[in-house]
Design brief:
The chain contains eight helices and seven strands. It is α/β, with parallel strands linked by helices. The chain has one domain. Strands 1, 2, 3, 4, 5, 6 and 7 form a seven-stranded mixed sheet that branches.
């Protein structure tokens, strides 16, 4: 506790003498500023594996823990969107039928591609662990139902294209979820996303302490992420070649 308190004082002191950021990028809290997030905001979100199970915060970030059991580098979470009031479903049996039909359609699409895209089932507890059905495709299809159909009325094909678009043009760091690790006095990045601004953050317990990648990446990604300069902190191209393509080389092939 004392070490973290000293680290906090030191960080605050340094921030007081550092020049203020010249960035004009708006930074919004996923929960507190949800009403301010534009309805056309979207982010291709990746879960990073956290292997430190015995921590105070691990139970609150089961997706990262589940990812660490599935893959060494990353898991594709989904194309995250915000709710657009104009797309509210009509409460009728016809709307329910349409939603379910399209969810099944997406399930049929992702069934062919989830392995190649590291889109694993990240539920904490499931039925039939280790079976094909457990790995795919209920959890993946729910992401489409929430973020694709309910929020944007995207077709299954439209959502799949957004989800698996690895082109680097017009993609910026626009989402980070992090969690406080008291043992190291840092915020550990558990999820990271790319799309268009504004930048949205979630889960930071102490926002003015360093953000770092999980320990599995420490040998190559040991630097803290500087949110005072989002435009140059982490590019999609950098993340793609340093993390995504280490496990799925086909994504970086011409």
């Amino acid at each position: 506790m004392g070490r973290c308190f000293f680290h906090l004082l030191l960080t605050v002191s340094l921030q007081c003498i550092l020049p203020s950021s010249s960035s004009n990028i708006e930074m919004l809290s996923w929960r507190q500023d949800s009403a301010k997030i534009p309805t056309n905001w979207g982010s291709q979100v990746f879960v990073l594996p956290v292997q430190l199970v015995q921590t105070d915060w691990a139970s609150h970030h089961s997706r990262s823990r589940q990812c660490s059991l599935k893959n060494k580098y990353y898991c594709l979470y989904g194309y995250k969107t915000v709710f657009d009031e104009r797309e509210r479903s009509v409460n009728s049996s016809m709307a329910d039928t349409d939603r379910e039909m399209k969810t099944v359609e997406f399930s049929n699409i992702i069934r062919q591609w989830w392995r190649q895209n590291n889109m694993f089932n990240l539920r904490e507890n499931g039925v039939g662990i280790g079976s094909v059905e457990e790995e795919c495709c209920t959890d993946q299809s729910m992401k489409y139902k929430w973020y694709g159909y309910e929020n944007r009325k995207m077709s299954p094909a439209e959502y799949f294209l957004k989800l698996t678009d690895y082109t680097t043009n017009i993609k910026e760091l626009n989402y980070i979820q992090a969690v406080w690790d008291a043992s190291r006095c840092v915020n550990v990045i558990t999820e990271i996303g790319f799309g268009r601004y504004p930048f949205v953050y979630e889960g930071f317990e102490i926002k003015n302490l360093p953000l770092v990648f999980p320990e599995v990446f420490q040998s190559t990604l040991s630097f803290p992420v500087d949110l005072t300069d989002i435009e140059t902190s982490i590019s999609y191209n950098w993340f793609k070649f340093r993390i995504i393509c280490r496990d799925q080389p086909w994504i970086c092939q011409p």
